[in-house]
User: What shape does this take?
Amino acid sequence: MVTGPMLLPRLGHRKEVNRLQLDLDRTKNKLKNVETLLDYAEKKKKKKIRTDYIRECILSNNPEIMNKLYELVNKMNDKD
Assistant: This one.
């Protein structure tokens, strides 16, 4: 049975895991920010959504956020 340090294939493994965790945390924060911005746009009944918000939604590659964006855009189009 392999235990302890034998599980770590190389010395830099822990550093790599920490970097990946940091990337994941940043992504989660971005997703929260995008959701907040979409909620704000919906509540304030904005006529336009800034392109950087849309870009963040698309880059998030999150189906829930994309659905929210589509719904918001459809509502805006219905008002015109």
Remarks:
- The CA atoms of residues 33 and 41 lie 12 Å apart.
- Residues 11-79 form one domain.
- Helices lie at 13-43, 51-60, 63-79.
